[in-house]
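Students often ask why we bother encoding 3D structure as a string. The short answer is that it lets us treat folding as translation between two languages. Here is a chain of 77 residues written in the first language.
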Amino acid sequence: MVERGLIQIETVFGQRKKVKGVNFVVDEENEKKAVIIDLKKHRDLWEDFYDTLLTKDREKEPRETIEEVRKRVLGRR
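And here it is in the second language, the structure alphabet:
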């Protein structure tokens, strides 16, 4: 089931603002399970969201010092 029309988001001051191009997929109990974003209207929003997910996922990856990166990229010097 897709919740059609405009969604409402709560702003910092507790006011609600309607956003075109964003729809929620809801289950039988009307609980939000997914979101559909119109990328023509909200590409920047999606890119920010996706970048944040990648950043969180990469937090688990081992770190390299700048010297290790230089050696790997430029070769041994």
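Translate back mentally: The radius of gyration is 20 Å. Keep this in mind for the problem set.
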